[in-house]
Amino acid sequence: MSTSSLPYMKPPRRFYFSWISGVISKPRQTFANITSQAGTWLTPILVLTITILVHVLASGWVNQQIAATGVIPTPPDFQYWNQEMQTQYMQSQQVRQGPVFLYVIPAIGALSAAWIGWLIVGGMLHLVTTLLGGRGETSVAINLVAWANLPFAIRELVRGFYLLITKRAIGAEGLAGFVDASNGGAGVFLVSLLALVDIYLVWHVILMAIGVNSHTGLSAGKATVGAVSVVAIVLLVQALFGYLFSQLSALSIVRPFFF
Question: I need a surface site. Which of 101, 125, 138, 251 has the fewest CB within 10 A?
Answer without folding.
Answer: 251
